[in-house]
Amino acid sequence: MDQLQPKHLDTSRGFRYTYYFSQPKADDAKPAILLCHGWPDSAHLWKEIVDHILKSKQRLIIPDLLVCGGSSRPTDPIDFEIGAMVADVMQVIQAEKIEQNIIPMGHDWSGSYFVTRFYLFNSARMAGLVTFNVALQPARSEPFGLAIANSMTEKAFGCPLYAYWELFADPKGPGEIMTKNPQSVCHAMHGASNDWRKTIFCLPGAIRE
Fold it and tell me: Which UniProt keyword terms apply here (predicted)?
């Protein structure tokens, strides 16, 4: 990430965002690229591809999303309302005098979900949309149901893909289990065996243990 300029912005909601911006050698006529990481990553997820993107002379903005990297770490769930987070990141982009011709790119569940909403809420300003690992998630009229989603994915893929979300949804999960056991969380996120993700993430109760 040494090729990029680390910067900070305090948004109108009072949250500080750390982000990385390309040096002023970029071509303003080309679309600006917004790279958004998933969980549990940070802007540094993209470090291996930064050089390749910079060769295209496109402006590049890579933020640490809330609670990640050097950005603010609110604890109230309401602070993560998607429209408000989209507005935060738009303020980051506008601070670099970029108003339109933007291509948001997101990785994994949270990053891909975020950029699809960023695109939909600001479609007139967008030049495209790219998601990695997770396909476009259309807006739904009914509330998301974790048990229903796990049942559907188990029938389709042989295992409940969102089994690990049960820990996140438990009021005691993040605060009393994950925060007090950071090394175990890191090990669960980045285990080395070939079937690690399936064993830890897609087996009910496994990530809690």
Answer: Hydrolase
